[in-house]
Design brief:
CATH topology of the largest domain: Hypothetical protein af1432
Low-confidence stretches: 1-25, 363-377, 592-599
Number of helices: 29
Distance between the termini: 77 Å
CATH architecture of the largest domain: Orthogonal Bundle
CATH class of the largest domain: Mainly Alpha
Helix content: 40-55%
Shape: extended
Number of domains: 5
CATH superfamily of the largest domain: Hypothetical protein af1432
Number of strands: 21
Mean pLDDT: 78
Length: 751
Amino acid sequence: MSPMADIHSETPAAQAHPADSAAAASFAGLLARLDYLGPTEIDSIRQAYRFADEAHLGQKRKNGDPYITHPIAVAAQCAEWKLDAQALMAALMHDAIEDCGVTKEELVERFGAPVAELVDGLTKLEKLEFDSREQNQAESFRKMLLAMAKDVRVILIKLADRTHNMRTMGDMPRSKWKRISSETLEIYAPIAHRLGLNFTYRELQDLSFRFLHPWRYEVLSRALSKSRNRRKDLIARVQDEVERVFIGHGMAVRILGREKTLYSVYRKMDAKHLSFSEVTDIYGFRIIAPELIDCYTGLGILHQLYKPVPGKFRDYVAIPKVNGYQSIHTTLIGPFGTNIEFQLRTHAMDVVAESGVAAHWLYKASEPGSDTSQRLGTQWLQSLLDIQQETHDATEFWDHIKIDLFPDAVYVFTPKSKILSLPRGATVVDFAYAIHSNVGDRAVSARVNGEESALRTELNNGDVVEVVTGDAAEPNPAWLAFAKTGRARSKIRHHLKTLAQDESRQLGERMLLQTVRHEGIAQLPDEHGEHKAAWEKLLRFTGSRNREELVTDIGTGKRIASMIGKKLAVLLADSGLKPDPLLISHERYTSGHNDTASQGVVTLDGSEGVSVQYAPCCKPIPGDRIVGYLGRGEGLMVHAEDCPTGKRLLHRDRERFLEVEWADEPVRAFETTLVVSLHNGKGVLARVASAMAATEADITHVDMGDEPAQNATDIRFTVAVRDRQHLAAVLRRLKRTPSVLKAQRAKSTRT
């Protein structure tokens, strides 16, 4: 046998696959693959086949073949992964509910609940439509991933189904090629990769490439074939030399040739703007060793035979990839100066490398006591459920997940030497949430390799990270700007939403109390006491589930406090709680009969959190006359009284305004914008910044505009000040600064 006989292409689309053969299209061919199952299980699969065959009777594929050939081919692929009998039964019947009018109840009765659940999950996936509309695609994708997280066999069968459909895509109308191929390339191939199904991942990529760009695929395929013939002698020589050196060391290894897939060659050419002749690492070798220690021994033997290329060594055995992949990669300079990649792994690692999460079933079939690969993919699948619990918006869920689908990972260490895998570009915040959500929520700083580091510090391979936490610390909205992992982003958003809801509930409670006081009720009665009936009637009137939801809706502006308060006062009066005339007189006198007074006066000190926002158009500060606008679902927005935007909203939505006032001692500084006109010159900006620092004003943003610098120019500074008196001191200091022509507060802008 020539050495080339051992070379196998990593271009699966170019191979005749077992599931495509005539044997795979017959049930007898499928049965031949089921030697890992017992007689009872095979009999159950035979019954499922008969049921599916009868259900699809008379149906044809696009090429004229009986439709049942498709479910058999899908089941054949699942049998290659050694999936259990339930999965094979579901594969045979995966179209029965949708295409044949079979009910889930009928499947439960005939084949049991587990099989029916698998078929039902697959049916829901079949109904998914991926199109260019982001929201629809996101919702469909969310359903699929959650089905996968519930039972990974669902997505394995779906991937087998998609693979067979792609193999037979040539029978489909050309008008469907682009949509189905794009969907496969963007969604199904990444999922296969994330689950470690490398052969399926490569095949789906190549098939998608073939039908997305038929001409490019054909040209590249011919070029690769010619290159294969030209380099036949080189490959034979390398294989012969490698075999002889291993035999000389008494090592029995299996040596396989390897060739890049067409799509990976095309992607490299496209990304690096290379011609085909400039892609030097098309060919490589895989060495399968008996034991783990033999991999490292073999590495030393190879490095003695050929010189290694600096920087082209990866040890995925010591630090596996996130999908469970393990192998040692090294690139060597072979004969004639050609770069050749070698991969060294054990047989068990090879099974995992090609089959990923499906290796669990392969191991169960060959080594019943082994659980080596049982945990493959489970962490990621569990994280899907965690993110779903905190993220009910489909687009946000899609946002979190798509980063994790392409895990170009970095590997970092805890102080106790535990290895964590994170996406490229991950920061200390991502690391903290990867350890535990409580660590992330309470993170304040970190030490990376023993040095003090900020939470936004990007991590590199080999970093040792220690997170410093504080009992009073909480997630910061600014973290979302640099958090990379879906887990971290969903945890931060979940915390902020919970915080906002708590604050909105407290604000709503205060507003409702102020309103009922205006109606003569001194306190809000308990909803479980003698006035329980009044509360129940109010909740029926508003459609709210409970008091907490009602007051939260008031705090977020979804309901008007004055309307709810007046209705509650009437209901309480009917139940025996009469209004106090003196309280009514006092409240209306102190409110000055203001039209918005019935909403209640809200006092602001800056500690309100995300439920109260200060309008960016006018940036009010303590001392300004202010008004509060209760936006629909947006909480309370505070505007300066003379703000054009606030006036426009008042004219349009007067009932949504309520009276607000500053507390005597606000607890923080507030931002406002200054416009400073100055002469250009060396050091001018530094002098202006120094003048502001002298007055204890913090500069949070500087906008110098896009216009070319003139002799005199305007610069906008966003500064944090305590109140109007502090602002006046800042302006006085600026006006006395050399080179400053004018300094004033920016006027409100319409939004």
